[in-house]
Amino acid sequence: MAIYTLPELPYDYSALAPVISGEIIELHHDKHHAAYVKGANDTLDQLEEARAKDQWGSINGLEKNLAFHLSGHILHSIYWQNMTGDGGGEPLEKDGTGELADAIAEHFGSFERFKAQLSKASATTQGSGWGVLAYEPLSGRLIVEQVYDHQGNVGQGSIPILVFDAWEHAFYLQYRNQKVDFVEAMWRVVNWQDVNDRYKRAKEKATGLLLAP
Ligand code: FE
Q1: Which of 24, 57, 59, 185 is 20 to 30 Å from 43 at the Cα level?
Q2: 105: pLDDT confidence band, cut at 50, 70 and 90?
């Protein structure tokens, strides 16, 4: 039985247009994300077979595939939730409070400086990757990571709360080679309520997780 399943999109394919076209979202979710889900499940099956047969000739490739596909599945699952058709603005919650806004100001200097760092990290990714805002449980701080593929260049234990997909499949049909324009437009669909919620959950559940008992 499959361990991982493709989550439903929380909106219609065209809900993020004109920032991201319905065609891109449909392909991105139904084909690309689905392939990572299948890849993660297939790799788990292959590892089970390796254990059963005590045959380890492919262990390096299998572990690499597991990291790649599982991380792709996790990041895309967050990505869909991080966006909404009526998003954008700054990270204030419905009730006007701003726990995340305060943390961003404290850890990055200001919202504008944070925005510049995440934009740069996303737009300058070499090859395929992501720009990620993550909660880092050892220090209890927010950090920006520039992730290679789905799994490289990551601080161990950090929890992604806002992710910008900078793979070409995320924008090329619409933005062609203008990755900077795509990243700039992404800010107009950020679902800050979702990012706020993720920040609070990460802080509540993961603070102290990496400290020695
Ligand atoms: Fe993607």
Answers
A1: 24
A2: very high
- The alpha carbon of 52 and the centre of ligand 1 are apart by a number of angstroms equal to 33
pLDDT band at 95 (very low <50, low <70, confident <90, very high): confident
> Ligand 1 center to residue 170 CA distance, Å?
5
Q: How many C-beta neighbours within 10 Å does residue 145 have?
A: 21
Residue 23 pLDDT: 98
Residues 46 and 32: their CA atoms lie apart, in Å, by: 21
Distance 204 CA to ligand 1 centre (A): 28
Beta bridge partners of 132: 145, 163
What CA dihedral angle connects 85, 143, 181 and 193, to 10 degrees? 10
- Helical H runs in the chain? 22-27, 34-53, 59-81, 99-108, 111-123, 172-175, 179-186, 192-206
How far away, in angstroms, is 17 Cα from ligand 1 center?
17
- Alpha carbon of 78 to ligand 1 centroid (Å): 11
> Kind and range of the H or E element at 134?
strand 129-136
| Distance between Cα 76 and ligand 1 center (Å) | 6
What is the set of domains in the chain, with CATH numbers? 21-81 (1.10.287.990), 99-211 (3.55.40.20)
Ligand 1 center to residue 87 CA distance, Å? Answer: 20
| Residue 44, number of CB atoms within 10 A of its CB | 18
pTM above 0.90, yes or no: yes
